Structure formats: structure tokens, C-alpha cells
Fold this sequence. Notes:
The structure is a homodimer.
Chain A: H1 3-9, E1 15-26, E2 31-40, E3 43-48, E4 52-57, E5 62-65, E6 67-72, H2 81-88, E7 93-98, H3 101-107, H4 109-118, E8 125-130, H5 148-154, E9 160-166, H6 169-173, H7 177-188, E10 192-195, H8 202-209, E11 215-216, H9 222-230, E12 234-238, E13 260-263, H10 269-274, H11 278-287, H12 292-299, H13 301-306, E14 323-326, E15 334-339, E16 342-346, E17 349-350, E18 385-391, E19 398-404, E20 407-408, E21 411-412, E22 419-425, E23 434-440, E24 447-451, E25 460-464, H14 467-480, E26 483-488, E27 493-497, H15 509-525, H16 536-539, E28 549-552, E29 555-558, E30 563-564
Parallel strand pairs in A: 1-4, 1-5, 6-7, 7-8, 8-9, 9-10, 11-12, 12-13, 18-23
Antiparallel strand pairs in A: 1-2, 2-3, 5-14, 14-15, 15-16, 16-17, 18-19, 20-21, 22-23, 22-25, 24-25, 24-26, 26-27, 28-29, 29-30
Amino acid sequence: MLEKYILAAKREKKCDLVLKNATYVDVFTASIKKGDIAVVGEKIVGVGEYEGEREIDCSSLTVLPGYIDGHVHIESSQLSPEEFASLIVPRGTTTIIADPHEITNVCGMAGCEYIAKASESVPLDVKIQLPSCVPATPFETSGAVLEGKDIEENIGNSYIFGLGEFMNYPGVIYCVPDVLKKLEAAHAAGKVIDGHAPAVYGYELNAYLCGGITTDHECVTKEEIEEKISKGVYVHIRHGSSTQNLGNAKYMTDGNMRRFILCTDDRHAADLKEKGHLDDALRRIVADGTDPVRAVICATLNCAECYGLKWRGAIAPFYLADLVAVDDLKSFNAKYVVKSGKLVAENGKPLFDTSKRYLPSSVLNTVHLKEMKADDFILTLKGKRAKAMTIEPGGVVTGCEIVEVDSRNGDVVLDGTDLLKLTVVERHKMTGNIGRALFKGYGFKGGALGITIAHDSHNIILMGDDNESMARAANRLKEIGGGMVIVEKGGDVHSLTLDIAGLMSSRDAEGLQRDSRALIEKAHSMGVKREYEAFMSLAFLSLAVIPRLKVTDAGLFDVEKFAFTEIDA
Amino acid sequence: MLEKYILAAKREKKCDLVLKNATYVDVFTASIKKGDIAVVGEKIVGVGEYEGEREIDCSSLTVLPGYIDGHVHIESSQLSPEEFASLIVPRGTTTIIADPHEITNVCGMAGCEYIAKASESVPLDVKIQLPSCVPATPFETSGAVLEGKDIEENIGNSYIFGLGEFMNYPGVIYCVPDVLKKLEAAHAAGKVIDGHAPAVYGYELNAYLCGGITTDHECVTKEEIEEKISKGVYVHIRHGSSTQNLGNAKYMTDGNMRRFILCTDDRHAADLKEKGHLDDALRRIVADGTDPVRAVICATLNCAECYGLKWRGAIAPFYLADLVAVDDLKSFNAKYVVKSGKLVAENGKPLFDTSKRYLPSSVLNTVHLKEMKADDFILTLKGKRAKAMTIEPGGVVTGCEIVEVDSRNGDVVLDGTDLLKLTVVERHKMTGNIGRALFKGYGFKGGALGITIAHDSHNIILMGDDNESMARAANRLKEIGGGMVIVEKGGDVHSLTLDIAGLMSSRDAEGLQRDSRALIEKAHSMGVKREYEAFMSLAFLSLAVIPRLKVTDAGLFDVEKFAFTEIDA
């Protein structure tokens, strides 16, 4: 095994692949050097003057180690892992730390296993973090529950890399026994634990970190970053579609810079396709003043060190030949991408088969529902004053407005108001749970729209002004196995299938986006205000950890009181 | 398990130990901070304002993470691991990466196991690197041979941390199959491999590193350091008794500083006792201009990262409570040392029981020899011109001088010359091997002196001008189970026992040193020139990898020709 590397390293054997005359980033000395980068099998064997069976002229390019995304939910792209790889590998990302939190909420361990296995056919190393908080809250019905004993049972699986973001930081700080059991299981297995502790400071932060937690991707202020790094945390610089903290890069110093890593967390297919992945993060932080070599180190060596990924994240002998050749350290425009020694992308296009799909039955047909009827959507109030949810600017925090509303035959009357019914229908376990709420100001009229993405348990969330349309919408979602739907009152049904767990599509990104855009346009044509993301804004109205009023399949939830509440005001 | 840390971290429970009002080095941000350092069990739970069952006022002290010695042969101290710990722990060292290369050459795996087990009773974490090159050369008889299959068999042992310094760099570069087998076994077990590649550069260095080697402690020049770091190597700053490269610290930059670590390699008991251990290294590099915070990082976090020692090398929540409180960052004078949460040394004195000795029979009585007679030391030459070994300034490189020498009754005549017989007697396997040589200029007269430390196979090496005395010396070494001896011709025998493998003493350092000094003085009184280290200079005359002429139990060896040679010139 080693002989082939050694012989080629000392030039007694031709290399398999040589990136000739490359300028490259030496992450160990934080400098820029020149040479031929020699590759044998999956390894770099050296830099110098080398000959290869295949040679690529890199005289006008700068070669970097392949990027490592420190924290990502593939599901947020709505793409299969294979298709996701086809978008991000050509951008230069060769390793991701993936937390399949969403699909595991739907499918349990089968979701984790699916992401791992589906990733095997693509030239992207997908390190699976076992989701630590499934469900994210106890106030809803998820498809799966991972208790302490489940984490104990699964954390040692060969395809599990570590324990995913520990969002339940109050559970750690308040020493909830089953929460501690999860952490202890991860430590016993010697696995790294990702953190998630927005605005946790001081003694509470000390307590949280005493859970043995390594990272945080929620930092946003200088003070928070400094405190967390000082307490041993690796801090992510995040380039999500909506959640961003690229500004964190500004707080790097000579002294603390090894503790910063890049990640994307949640990034939509459109952004991946049009703007990019970590390449876009690099481009932006460099444009914003970060030293490009330092930026590259955050995207490579730092992340490898954080996650204990040996022989990865650098251009040096015996390191994994994950390489990206870019035009320059400003555009980060990827010309060639090499993964484990193989050229896998050129000029932004994948050179690997992107058509394969691993589709086990365990992640398909995940909408389990009895036939819904119009009457299921009746909303009966005791009086005339009700709480209506609103969305505040920013898109995820909701408000509560007290509204006057009439009823007729035991059902609220929405005609002539800007109110809509917002309903969460449990879709995992046939509990028949239906959570009901009123929503004000979405703008939609004349039917129903719905989606099977509803954070974090991913039940069906529907909005509408017509019971019959809402029932038809739910039934269509069941029929297609999950996705998005619009029902025109007494008319057509328009839908888009997200066949994988109701969260992701097995189609290619381009077709999916085209149809998705059409459906979103349809929603806007039926009145959904442009300030909302038609479907994805709905998806966060069930997330009962973000203020103020949310609705789950178990009912209306007052996040500030941390308790269910009545719609009647 | 985690609950006690978390409760104390948020001050709902008193801590076990608090270092009050400490100034401390924050290795993550490379800065100096202040606070109470709170400890529960073996962990740090936080820094802030804390109360403890026990509190130590550190208001005039600076607290650092316990030091980690990146590479050390305990045997070079001639002390047991227990006594070694009693000297270095009070200096602030709490973890060592120990390569029991010497004792393994004598005792095989039992030597490794002994070092591991003996270390269990002392508050020092001893991470055992399985010696990779036993014997160091094929030109001598050692007590044990560790072939590739032996490494395969043992590298996974629970008490083995990694693979020790791979001195056989030509074996790697030339792809010797059994050498590669050793490296491959270590990789298969996921273990770190230490390097040793003095003045190996360029393509040969690429080849060596393609063995998957992580460190080098032999760097001395700026160019060598820069090349090695750039190629992914962690470079040691070494503070041995004779081998030193503290000057390496000068080549640290903002960009490469995380790749420097401290070590001592070989350090004598007298230096440990009088000058210190890594504290002395820190003192010196800081005196020489290295930023003290950066120096501390090299002695702590960097080393922990290099060797994958998680939760070690920093003062932060969940990190191992290995701490040293020093007067200041100039003297590095250790006032208190805390190991795994326990106060284990104060004012340079150990607070732990230093009298325990683990002494398994496998490392005792290791001198296996038939009774030697005067005739065994006859040296017969064919002619009158002979090669005589000399020692060049520096102490380990030897020269070869052609001398005229008379013979009588088939034995050389040494009277009236400054020649001595230098003889290596195999002492492991009763082979009866005797290697003979002539040595010029040592100064000794009137008997014999000898020692069972003779690098790296540690046979008996004897020097003398009288056959009878040499035989008596060998027999005394057998009788005492190894050590050092001086025989006065026709008179007294003076000896000092190194009962552990003939390399180390089970006594305390003070008694050993006193007696050792007396014996050394005796040697000088019998003529050994002051420029030599009486016994320890002998110990390197058998090291057949250092130029030019050496003698092993198999005969006189010409290192430059890499072949045995005749004494006759």
C-alpha cells in the first residue's frame, strides 16, 4: 500500500496525476508556494518537479485543498445527496459534516443511513453526525424519537461520525438525564459533538460546554465569538441561505485564527446553483477584507483539525488528494476539482455520473394519513376574539395579533378578512392529530396551499380559506408521497413531489427548481405577498422554539410561555 | 458523570478545587486572562468567580495548562518511571509521549509494558509509543527484535499509544518490505507515527513522509524546519541533555506556529533535578526572545493537537485539569502542579508517594552471560598496523586512527601506549559474541571500566588495559544485574547497579546520582580525560549508525562503508 506512494514521491515511478506548475496555498505556513502537485492513488505524494500519467496545466491557477463544510443539512437543499454533490463538488467542496436532522425526524435511523448510503456513489466525503435532538421539541409528533438509549445504540455505527448539533442546550444546562445520556454515549464512543448555543454566555456557557461540546455555528457578535473561542469552542463562519454570519471572519486574529471554520448549515438549491457553496463564502469574506490564505485555512485545515480528520485539509505528502484549482484567490472560481486523486469536476461541471439515485423504500411514501375531509378543517371558537399569528420581518419570528372573527355553523368565517386557517396535520403515525390556528396577512385567497416540510417534525402544514380545498391539498400530499401543493377552490390542484421523506426530491436540481418556481409563482398569483417565501415561510410556522406563537399538530403553542394556548383570546 | 461538572460550572454546586484569582494563559486566543479556575473531579469546569471545597490563592501566580513532552526516552534519565515522574511533575509536566526504545531493545514488549504499568502509580500520563526500530541496526545482537509482524501484533494493545520514532528512514525511503509493514500496521490501527529524519530533504523527505509520519525532532536549520513544516510535519523544539535544538523556536511565525511542539528526548537525571524539564526549555526559549504565551502554546495545545489528545492542553470547560501555577512567564518557576484535578506538587516537591516501584521480573536480571575469563579479552592481530577508534569533539562521532601496535603471545601489548581495548560482550542471548576494537586517547589506565548501557542494543561495553580486569568487570556486571563498573587491576571492584534492564535504577535519584558521581570521579582518577563522560561516552561507541568506526558484539563496524571491518589496517 505505501510503496506506490514512496516510489512516486522520490520520482522512481510516474505519478498518476500531476497538477503542473501550480501556485498553491501552504496551509501549514500560511503562505503561497509553487510547484507540481503529484498524486498517486488517492494521496498527494509531494510537491516539486513531477511527471504524471496525466498532467493538468495549472500554471495560471491556484490550487487549494478541497473545502470542508463543517456543518450542513443536505435536506435544506431539497435535493438528494447525489444531486447535492453534483452542485457542490464542482465548487470545490470535497468533504461535508452532514447532520441529517430533518430526514431523521421523519424516518429515524433509516434517514441517517439513507444519507450515508446515497452519498457513497458520489465523489464527496459525507461524514454523518447522528442527530442529537429528534424531535427538536416535545410539543409535536415526529416520525421518530431518538432517546438516550437510541443514541447509545447507534452512535457507534460505522457510518456515524459524531453527534449532531446539540440544540437542546437548556436540556444540557438543566441536566435532563436523558439528554446527558446522549452526550455520555458520544463521549464513550470517542465521537465529536457539535454545538448550537445561540446567545448562551457566562456560567451557562460553561455548563453547556461541560457537556463536552466542540463547536458552535450560532455566534454572531464579537463578544460571543471571543468568549466561546476562549472557552475552547470552534466557531463556524456560516453561509446559509437565510442564516448568515460571514461577518465572524472579521474577528479572526493571529492568536485565535485556528479556531474558525466554515459551514453552510442550510442552503437552498438555487443559491448553491447560482451563487455557490463554500466558494461563495470564501469569495465574500475575502471581498470583505479577510486575508485569502487565512480564509482558505478556515475552509480546510481548521475544519479537519476540529473534526479530527487526519491527513486532510492540506497539500502535503500523504494527505488525501482533495484539491481545487481556482482562477485566483478573489473569484475562487473553480476550474478543476480533484477528489481522492480523481478529477471529478471541470469548469463548474461534474465529471461524475449524477444520475444515480439510491432510493430505499424506508425514505419513500412517508405521508401516513387517513383520507382528509372538509370537516377536518372546521375551526370552532368559543367567542369572537381570537389570536392570529403573523410573521415578523426576517421570516421566522412570529407575532400574535388579537382579531375579531365571526363564526357560522361552528366554523370561523374568513370571507372579507385577511385571515387564513393555518393547520398542521400529523403525517407520520396516523394519530389523527390536527393543530389549528389563524394566520393574518399572508395575502393568499381562494383555496389552500401546503407543504410536508414543517420544522422540525415535518408534518403537513396547510394554509387556506376553504375547508374542501385544504382537505384536497392534504390528500394530494398523501398521494404524491410529500411535497408542495396548491389547490384552487373548486378547481385545479398543482403540486410538486418531494418523494424523499417529503423533504427532498430525487429529481435533478434544474427540473425541480423550474417546477418549484412555477408553483411559487402560482402561490403569489393567488395573493401570497412577495415578502413571504410562499411555501418555505410556512415551513417555519411550526418551529416551537422560535418566538412567539407557533402551531404544531398538537395545537397552538406560546413559545414565550413555553405552553400550549387556546386560539380564543 | 457529566452532571457534577455541569452543576458546578453553573455554580449550583461547590467545586472540588479552585485556583483563586489566577492570571492564566488562554491558549485558544493566545492571550493572558484572569479568573478563578474551577475544577471538579479531573476536569476544569470553567473560569469565572467560583468557590471550592479547597481553594488555592493564585493571585500572584500565572496558571498554565500542564506541559506535554512530545518525545522522551525515560530510560535516558537512568531512573524508574516513578522516580522520573517525581522529578518532572513538580516542574509542571503532566503528560509525556514516551518511547521506551532502550528498554525494549533489552526486554522486548515486556519493557514497553513495564514502562506503562510502572507509570500507573504516579500522577503523570505516560503515552507509550511502541518502539519502531528494535534493534536499531542489524549489526548487533539485541535482547529483542520487533519485526513487522510483532508491530502488527502489538500496535493495537490498549497501553500502546502510537508508533515510536521511525529512525530507519532509509528503510522507509528504500521501501524495505518489513519496514513498510510496520508503518502500515500503525495506520491500520489509526495510530500516530513519530519521525526521526535528520537532514532528510526534498524528494527523499517526500518519500519518507509518504510513510505517513507526523513529527520530527531532529530539525536544526531554518531551511529544514520550513521545509518540514510546509510538508505537514510537526517540528519538535528539543531540550535534551546533549541533543538540543531550542533555537528552532526562533523560526516560529504567525503562520506556522501551531506546528511547533516541545520535547526533551534524552535528559539526564542531574539535568532534570538541577535545571528542570520543559520548564527549563520554556525559560530558555523565552529568555532567547520567544513570546512567552506562544512558548506555552507549544508546550501544551500544539502538542495535544499533534498527538490527538482531546480535551487536554488548555484551560477551558471540560478540559483535563492538568495545571501548573508559576511565579511568572520568565522564571516558569512552578509553585503548584495539579494533575487530573489533584494537587500533586508544591514548591518543586512532589506531594505523591514517590517510593513505590513496580518491578516485574521481566525487566530484572537481564545480564545473561557465561562466566568470562581473562582469555576472552585477548586481541590477536595479524600485523602491526591497526585501526584505533577515537572520539571526535561533540562526543558521539568517532574517528579512525591507524596506529602501530606490538603483540606478545597473540595478544596486543598496550603498555607504553595510549591505546585501550574496547570490547562489546553480548549479554542478552548467551551467544558468546565478543566484538573487539582498539581505542586511542581515553586516558584510562590500570584496569577496566564498563557499562550495560551501549546504544542501542545495550550489550556490555568494556574498556581496559588488562584482560583479567575486563573479565572481572563483565562478571561483576552480570552479578549485579547490570550497571556500571570499575575494576582496579589486581584490586578493588567498584560498581553501581542499574537493576532495571541494566539501564535504569530502582533507587531514588539522589542516591543514584551521589553514587554515580563517585564512580565517575573514580574513573577520572584512573585517568579518563575530563572531556569524556567516563561511562556515557562509552555508551555511544557501539551505535553503528553514527560515523565513523563503531564496535558491536559482532565486531568492528565501518559506518561509512556500512560494513564490518578488520582491526588490522
